[in-house]
Write a structure and sequence with these properties.
homodimer; about 400 residues; alpha/beta; Alkaline Phosphatase, subunit A; eight-stranded mixed β-sheet; 13 helices; globular
Chain lengths: ~400, ~400
C-alpha cells in the first residue's frame, strides 16, 4: 500500500485535541472476576457518560504479536512508523534518566564492571554494587573526566551498577559498536564505526578514550574498576508536531522517559506530579497556548507490571474522578488509549491490542454503554495501527483537507 | 508499514506449540440449515470446552478476494509472505506426488500428448489416456531415459495423462520456459532460460533433450506419442523453522503435498495415516523431540470439494472426539485453523477468511460459547493475515522479546 497522503492535507485550525494515554491500560479478562478486565471492573461514571457518543476500537502499536517497549509504543501514538523510526537504546535510557538531549548528542547505557589485571572483564556488573556506590563513582568520573577532546561527557547514575553517559560536542554521530564484550572472560572491545563516516569515527574514538580514562580513574576501586558502554546512539532528528501537523503540542508527564520521547516529537514538555488531577490542571493552565495535549498517566502500567488488578482499577478510577476537569476545558477531540497493553496476568508489556476511545463532534456515536476491551472489540474504529491514530484525531478535529477533488 | 521486527526478537524456550490445520475448514452459512456452517452444525463438546478461554478471529491467507492454493495457504501459515515466496508449480506438483526434493532439483508438471507426423501437437492430453496406460508409459520412459548428460530423470505417474518429472544433477536452476505450446496445432516449443544463467541454460537443454528422447521412445505408441513439460522450477531454499524461530518443528500429515511444503519450511516430516487419532498419537510419540507440531487434517477440504456438508461435519466431529488426546499432551499454545476456506456451496477453495482459535495462558478469554465462523467474526484477534499467525503463536508461547525499550 502507498503511504498515506496525510502530510499534504494538513489544515490550520483552532480546535484542541487531547491524547490521554493511560500507559499499559489494555488488559485481559480475569475469569475469576467474571471475565472482567480492569477497565471493565472499574467504576467510571464519567467515562461511561462519554462512551455512547464516542467511537471505540483497538490500537495495534507495532505489529501483530509484537510487544512494544515504551519508546516504540509512544512513537507510534505520535504518528511515526515505530519500526522505521529507530531510537537507540542509549537515547531512550538517557531520556528516561531525565537528560534533555540536544541535537547531535550521543547517548549510551553504561555500567561499572570488574576488570582483571590482564584487562579481561571478570564481572560485567561489578558484583552489582549498591546504587549509592554507583552514585559516588559516577561523581568521581564526572569530576575527573568532564571532557575528552572537545566533547563534554555528561553522566547520570542509575540503579545498582548502571549509569547513563551522554557525549555532547561537535561532529558526533551514532550508532557505533558497543564497548562491551557482552560476556565475561574477554577484554573490553574497542567501539567502532560501521562505515567511514568521520563523525562516527570520532564518536568511537571518544568512547574508547572514555573507557580507558575511566579504568585509570577507577584503578584503586574494587570491585568496580572499569566501565562498559552499549546502545551508543545519537539523538534522532524527527520532524515534529508543528512541521508535520501544524500543532502546538504540549506533553504533560510525570516521568522523564515520556517527556523525552515527546520532546523528540517536537512537543513542549510540562513536568507534573503523579496525581491525575495535577496533570489535568496543568493542561488547563496551558490551554490557550497549545492545540494538542499529550497527557501521560503512568500508574496503569505500574499496576499491570506488578500484576495488581485492584491497583490498576484504582488508577483508572482516579482518572475517571478527575475527568470532569479535563472535559471542562471542552476539548474538540478527546482520545483515551494506551501505548500498549500491560495485562495483570502477564505482569509486563504485551502484544495485545489496546482499547481506544475517540470523542468529538464527528466521531460517530457507537452507542456503547462503557469503554473497555469488550466494547472496543466491536467498535466502529475496528483495529487501527497506532501510527494512524494521529490522522484520525486530526480528521476529527477538522484539521485535514479532502484528498483529491 | 515497515517489515515486522519479529526475526530480531526470537527467544529460546521450552514451550510447545501445536498448529492444527483442518484443511479448507472455513465455510459459508447454509440457509437451508438455519444459517449454520459445518463448524457450527458439528457436535464438538471438546472444542466447545476450549472456546470460552480462547481467543478467536479470522485468518486472511493471501489478500482480500484472493483464493489460495494449498502451497500459498500453508506457506502463509508457516510465516512466509505467500506472494513473495514463490514456489513453482512443478515443485508443488512434485511434493504432492511424494518426491523428497533435494536442493538443486528442478521439477516439472508433465503430460503425454499426441504429436502429428509434422511434430505438431494435435491433442495436448493424448485423448486423456487411462491412468494405467500413463503408468506403463512412465515406466517405459524411466527405463529408456534414466538420465541425460549427468542429470538423473525421475518420473512419477499421475492421474490420466499427467505425470511429474524431477531433474536431479549438478548445476541446474529454474525457472525455465515451458516445453508446451499451451494450445493444439503448434509444435512443442523449446524450453529456454530467461537470462544468461548457465545453470538455467543447462536445465533448458536437458528438458529439450528429454522431450526429444521421449518422442523417440514413444514413437510407436498411440495416442500418447509425445510429452509436454511446464511449471519447470527449482526447489526453493527457504529459511526454516529452526533458523527463523528457534523451533524444532514436526509436520504430521497423511498427504505428501503438505509434508513437502512443511519440509520446505524446515520441518521434520512424520507420515501418518488419515485417521485423526493416529495424527494426534504421532504428536504424542514425538512430543519431547519437538517444540512445534504442524498437524494436517485433509478430510475437511475433501468434503468441501465434494460439496458434502454432512461429510465435512463428520470430519470436524472426528477431530473433536480425538481432541482430548491432543490436549492431554498439554501444549502451551494450541491453534486450530485452516489454510483457506473450502465452502460446501463453492465446491472448491475460496477467498473467504478462515476461522482461527488460539488457546494458551495469555491468549485472553473471549468468552465465546463455541468456535465457528460467526463467533470468530467478533473474536479478539480480529482479522489476521495468515503470515502473521506465527508471530501471534510465538508471542503466546513466551518466545518473543519486547521490541525497543
Amino acid at each position: 500500500m502507498s503511504e498515506s497522503p496525510l502530510s499534504s492535507l494538513i489544515l490550520k485550525g483552532t480546535s484542541k485535541i487531547v491524547l490521554l494515554v493511560l500507559d499499559g491500560v489494555g488488559d485481559l479478562p480475569d475469569l475469576g472476576r467474571g471475565g472482567l478486565t480492569p477497565l471493565a471492573a472499574a467504576r467510571t461514571p464519567h467515562l461511561d457518560a462519554l462512551a455512547p457518543a464516542a467511537a471505540l476500537g483497538r490500537l495495534l502499536p507495532v505489529a501483530i504479536g509484537i510487544t512494544p517497549g515504551s519508546g516504540p509504543g509512544h512513537l507510534a501514538l505520535f504518528g511515526y512508523d515505530p519500526i522505521a523510526t529507530q531510537v537507540g537504546r542509549g537515547v531512550l535510557e538517557a531520556l528516561g534518566a531525565g537528560f534533555e538531549l540536544e541535537s547531535g548528542d550521543v547517548a549510551a547505557r553504561a555500567n561499572f564492571c570488574t576488570l582483571g589485571g590482564d584487562g579481561v572483564v571478570s564481572d560485567r556488573r561489578a558484583g552489582r554494587i549498591a546504587s549509592e556506590v554507583c552514585a559516588r563513582l559516577v561523581a568521581t568520573l564526572a569530576r575527573e573526566v568532564p571532557r575528552i577532546e572537545d566533547v563534554g561527557v555528561l553522566l547520570e547514575p542509575g540503579k545498582g551498577h548502571r549509569f547513563v553517559a551522554v557525549l555532547r560536542g561537535p561532529g558526533l554521530a551514532g550508532p557505533v559498536s558497543d564497548a562491551d564484550p557482552h560476556h565475561e572472560g574477554a577484554p573490553v572491545p574497542a567501539s567502532r564505526a560501521a562505515g567511514d563516516d568521520p563523525a562516527a569515527a570520532k564518536t568511537a574514538r571518544i568512547v574508547n578514550a572514555f573507557v580507558a580514562r575511566a579504568a585509570q580513574v577507577l584503578h584503586g576501586e574494587s570491585p568496580a574498576n572499569g566501565v562498559l558502554m552499549r546502545g551508543l546512539s545519537a539523538r534522532p532528528v524527527l520532524p515534529g508536531y508543528r512541521e508535520r501537523f501544524q500543532l502546538r503540542a504540549a506533553a504533560i508527564a510525570a516521568y522523564p522517559m515520556y517527556r523525552g520521547v515527546a520532546q523528540l516529537a517536537g512537543m513542549e514538555v510540562v513536568p507534573v506530579g503523579e496525581r491525575v488531577a495535577d496533570a489535568f490542571a496543568a493542561a488547563g493552565a496551558r490551554w490557550s497556548e497549545h492545540d494538542f495535549f499529550f497527557i501521560h498517566i503512568k500508574g496503569t502500567d505500574m499496576a499491570g507490571e506488578d500484576g495488581n488488578f485492584a491497583a490498576k482499577v484504582a488508577v483508572i478510577e482516579e482518572v475517571d474522578r478527575a475527568l470532569p476537569d479535563l472535559m471542562g476545558l471542552a476539548p474538540d477531540v478527546l482520545c483515551v488509549t494506551g501505548d500498549h497493553s500491560t495485562p495483570v496476568p502477564v505482569k509486563g508489556h504485551s502484544w495485545h491490542p489496546v482499547p481506544v476511545l475517540v470523542h468529538g463532534r464527528w466521531c460517530g456515536a457507537d452507542g456503547a454503554a462503557r469503554f473497555h476491551e469488550l466494547t472496543c472489540r466491536t467498535g466502529s474504529l475496528g483495529v487501527v495501527p497506532s501510527r494512524d491514530l494521529m490522522a484520525l484525531l486530526l480528521a476529527n478535529a477538522g484539521r485535514l483537507d479532502k484528498f483529491g477533488a
